[in-house]
Structure formats: structure tokens, C-alpha cells
Amino acid sequence: MEETNNSSEKGFLLLGFSDQPQLERFLFAIILYFYILSLLGNTAIILVCCLDSRLHTPMYFFLSNLSCVDICFTTSVAPQLLVTMNKKDKTMSYGGCVAQLYVAMGLGSSECILLAVMAYDRYAAVCRPLHYIAIMHPRLCASLASGAWLSGLITSLTQCSLTVQLPLCGHRILDHIFCEVPVLIKLACVDTTFNEAEPFVASVVFLIVPVLLILVSYGFITQAVLRIKSAVGRQKAFGTCSSHLVVVIIFYGTIIFMYLQPANSRSKNQGKFVSLFYTIVTLLLNPIIYTLRNKDVKGALRTLILGNAAGQSHRD
């Protein structure tokens, strides 16, 4: 019993990239830079979507929800990772690890569903433009967004609760960058067949099914766009949807690699870099892609900045 409780009493050793000090210092600077940019970019999107009445549409409602998920998701991982990388003692408390496990799992799952919801919104906008307002009415939008958040909460409570109940028999070395379900399952000293199968089933629900729905939606969108006679109209439709598709490919691709590929088929550093990519890098790409490729958001940002500058000049 004393050996079993050792992990909860002493916490975990989060190794990360500690075996490569130069790489660790380089990654510390990169992660800090990306984290700050991600916070600024996603916060800017939320502000303009709330303050600019022209962006009070379903598309930007879901985009602001995505930015909110991204801020919370990256904050559940990056600060703790930066603290651990910047000190010699790589210990992370048991409670901190469990909290990170629940929060990161819930928010990652919510993002998976939210991206599928955004694909449906684009399908309705492009393929059913005359009925778009009737289809995507405010009550449905609120229900879809709430469903995305709630589904993440449910899967987190289910998967993580099963994982934290596994006896670790004193194993406390996590050769990873943060507390994640597949990594903790590998520490268990009992048969984990059921625990490995449950995340696989959840991955099918939260990864494969949304990806299939997104592909079907974009199949219909492509057909509808190709029927548009105006070249300007086709370009506008493709431009609106391509940004979302880029985010989808990057985000789902890295998570599918982590959760659906057998753990013994990838190197330990490969898994760390993949996790780093979908928890830090991808969440920075969202505001970059949606602002640089979206005239409405760029215009709203410009108006917000110029308006604040004018107000400050007037007070002076």
C-alpha cells in the first residue's frame, strides 16, 4: 500500500526534454513566445467578435468559442510546462497532474466537436444560403456550442476518472511534456486492456466521426462552389472555407497521430513533439489563419485599433 501511494504523495517527475538541455532551453523560448502570441491573438478575436456588430453572426460566434477553448487549452499546458522546463527539479504534484489531465482532455475534446460544428455552419452558409439564417438561428447556435463544451466535460470525467484509479505501484516518472491519458496508462502496474480500449473508442467518437462529418460537409461545399458562375464568388467561398479546413487538417492530424497510432510504433521524442504541436503550435495558428485570411476580422481589428487610438488622441 505504501508503494502504491508513493506517486500521489511525492507527485510525478515530468522529464520532458531534460535529457537534452540545449534543446530544452531553445524550446522554452519558443513555447513562451508562442504562448504569448496565442493569448494575444485569441483574445483579440474574442474582443472583435463581441464588440463589432458586423461580426454578430453564427460563424464568428463559433470562432469566438473556438478562441476561448484555445486560450483555456493552451493555458492548461503551457505555464506548467514552462515552469518545469525552467527548474532543475522536474517534480509535478499529483493534484496538479490530475487537474491538468481533466482540463486538457475536456478542452481538447470540446475543440474536436467545435471544429465539426463550424464545418456544418460553413455547409449551411454555402450550400443553403437562402435558408442560412433560418437554419443557424441563435438558439441552435447556442445549443451546438453548449453541446461541444458539455461533450468535452463528459468525456473528460469518464476517461480521466478511469485513468486516475489505476494503481501505479510507485511509478512516478512521466517521460512526456504534460500529464496525458496514454502516458499515465503506461505507468500502471495492472492489466490496462480496458483502459486502452476506452480512449480508443472515445478517439473514434471525437476524432474519426467529426473528421468524416467535416469531409462530407466540405464535399458538398466543393460541389456548391464549383456551380458558382462568378469567379469572384468562387474565390470568396473558397477563401472563407479554406482557413477552417487548414485548421482542421493540422489539429486533427496531430491528435490522430497521438491517440490512434500504437504507442510502441513511435519514439518517445516523436510523441512529445506531436503533443507540443497540438497543444501549443496549432492553437497559435488558429488566430493567425482566421485573421490573415479573413477580411471581416482584419477590418474589425483595424477599426478597433484605430478607434482606440482616436479616443486616446481626443482625450490628450
UniProtKB/TrEMBL annotation:
It holds the Pfam family 7tm_4. Keywords: Cell membrane, G-protein coupled receptor, Membrane, Olfaction, Receptor, Sensory transduction, Transducer, Transmembrane, Transmembrane helix. InterPro entries: GPCR_Rhodpsn, GPCR_Rhodpsn_7TM, Olfact_rcpt. It is a multi-pass membrane protein. PROSITE patterns: G_PROTEIN_RECEP_F1_1 (PS00237), G_PROTEIN_RECEP_F1_2 (PS50262). One of its GO terms (cellular component) is plasma membrane. Residues 41-290 form the G-protein coupled receptors family 1 profile domain. It is found in: Cell membrane. The keyword Cytoplasm does not apply. One of its GO terms (molecular function) is G protein-coupled receptor activity. SUPFAM superfamilies: Family A G protein-coupled receptor-like. The chain crosses the membrane at residues 26-48, 60-81, 101-120, 140-158, 200-221, 242-261, 273-292. PANTHER family: OLFACTORY RECEPTOR (PTHR26453). Belongs to the G-protein coupled receptor 1 family. This is Olfactory receptor. It comes from Pongo abelii (Sumatran orangutan). The gene is OR2G6.
